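USER:
Try writing one entry.

ASSISTANT:
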Amino acid sequence: MNAPDISRYKTPITIVLIILISLLALWIRLIPEPAIVSDAGVNLLGNDPWYNLRQIEATAANFPGYAWYDPMSLYPSGMPIYWGPLFIQIIAFIGILAGASTRPELMYIASLVPPLMAVAMVPTMYFLGKSLTDRKTGLIASLFIAVVSGQYLYRSLFGFVDHHIAEVLFSTLFCLLYVLALKFTAGRRIDPKDPETFKKPVIFGFIAGIAYVLGLMVMPTIVLFALIVAAFTLVQFIWDFYRETPSEYLLLINGVAFGTAIIGTLLFGLKHDALSLSRYSIVHVYAYLALILASGILYAFSRYLSGKQKALFPLSVIVTAAVGSLALFLVSPDIFQTLIGGVFQFFGEQAETLTVQEARPWELASAWTTFQFGLLLMAGGIGVVLYKNFRNEHPDHIFVLVWSLVILFSTIRHVRYEYYLAVNIALLGALFIAYLLDLARDDIAALFSGRPAEQEVSQPQKKKKKAAPPPVKPRVKNPLTLAIAAGGVILGVLFITSSFSTSVGIADSVGGGIDADWMEALRWMEANTPDPGVDYYGIFERGTYQYPEQSYGVISWWDYGHWITFVAGRIPTANPFQSGVSGPDGAAAFFIRSSEAESSAELTRLNARYIITDFPMDDAINGKFWAMATWYNTTLGGAPYSTYMISADAASGQSEVVGLHTAAYFQTMVARLHNFDGSMVEPAEVYYIEYSDETAAGTPVPVITNVRVLPTEEAWAAVAAYNAHASSGTHAGVFSPLLINPVEKVPALHHYRLVHESPTSVLSGEKPNIQYVKVFEFVPGATIPGDGIIEVDVVTNTGRTFTYRQESENGMFVVPYATSGSSYNVMTIGPYRITGTGVTIEVPESAVMQGLVIA
């Protein structure tokens, strides 16, 4: 009985498989949904999604209007928006269609869109793989992209409402259409008199241009794909010239695609005056014109130099590029810097950006953890593309190779581009496996059919019936080829299973972006602080908007800016776009400075009224303090504020690395606020430590040789005495392992009062304790004449008590807490008292808020 012919069912089977793979991709991405959805809405992942939700709400209220300027962030200037509206408008439109009328409903719909875009990537990858080789490649690529882990997975999970997956989708669509245009024209002469020779490349080039513009409307950094096309065009022109192949197709496709991009860019509008490729500026038009012009010049060279020495073509390209760059530099240095310098800036890095996790370089260990066997498959795919193009010309494959190498290099420089690289790993891995399967096709057929790989069939002759011959054992002609193909398939299976396991694990372990303490503190802020008077849903023009008189800013570390905007409805002075972070009026300077006068002057310039701190900001050993210190001083970073040393236990022979705080740490504003609530602290005893430095000890960090607990003054005297006569490589210092134990007197803050703290205690069992999130108010303070030390007992909203203490300066005290009239739940217990005198003073709220003198 003959086996049924399933070839006629290929299309329906393929459709079913694509649907199943799409459902698998969707299922993985919906795993976080139960953990982050509540009646209050969706606890979105990360930081930026919260701002995107803020944009979605404003766009839904003004659809299809989009705010290119937002006064609800980066106070007091407001924040210009440098990315496009398409992702936001898609979600707002879906929300309007679905009738989402409340914030929780809109949050849920928005959270679904990234997973749905990841689902759309499945058929996109299928068509991309199929266009490069065949149906088999497309199916493998679609399965790979459904399960691949890393940034691509995380940024397409339910709850990660950000534009990254939209960038991947539209850039991949562009690449698919560009590949199709190449496929229909490569190696063929284009006759202007015969529309059939250029109809398909024009159509696909035009649609590719549309896809590019859609990607541009998501994010201007899609210009990276114009760079990829430029690099491919140069490589392919050189390759075509050496092989004496027609290359006018490159000029036609680039002209149509990026001519469309120019028109689309102009229709979309130039939103920013600055010359920048990362903004919607006229430089994009210049870049696309340059790409088209370069394609024309390369085509002219290929025609003029045809039949001449092969070395003349690359030499002409180098000379022309050098002369053109010099001319551009002389005529318009600004544009030169934007186009040429922008490329180096894109691939470069700075000390500050290394504090941003997604901007750090891609490390090999991280790469393997993310993609594992996919990296081997990608390498195999690169090898296949190179091998096939040495035998035959495949411009579409060369494009994929250039595309992959540029994205790989981008990812190595900045790990954020890992979400782009997932596409290239899936595609090249599929090309590799499909090629091996094709190479061993006959042997695989022989292995599973029971027939030899190659068997001669003789003409039938009329003979008497004989007994059926015994079954023929399958004969494999090329066992090595079959083994290699089997190895490739095994790698593919390992990639699928490891990626699936990792992806499910990531999706199952993620939690919401805002923890309970921050949510509690921000909801308190929304209900208990003055409304800044800005219409949350309004759309305003940057050049004409004026803040209302009652407006003010809230300063915190930039990580929390979007939360402050979305949850509290207040205006942060810094945000996760790294705005408002650096410089003399940046958040880093405020929190790291030791001078209250300078930090207060900054708040006055910013018109900031409230300060929010949390334990990670305060933690110089394991938290975010080092990031703030690095933004404040890129050279020193966190070095002046903490150190690590090896502590050895002589009895057990065990050693461990311990983190220690220096005197400078305790003088920073963040430590004085979060650890001591702005109060003066005088340590009774401190740790005196003798140690050998790294060079002397031959270890990565210093080694402690002696530790004593001494009275403060005695300890500092011992340090001076030891260091005056210390041998080479040995030192002494005063350090503290605990946040709450300073190593010298910490003066009080005069203009900052605690107004709220979250319920979670950080230091269990320690006295005094520290709450996870604290909110302070910047106030003028009441002035009290007197000398000595003034103090007042305070009880917080959590029931924690502490004593605010301050030493007089020039016969005056300036105190931030009122003993009556305050509307906050952090209250004083009784009047102020000047210690040792019996004098008590009542301070009304009006005196604190108006800077009055208490007679």
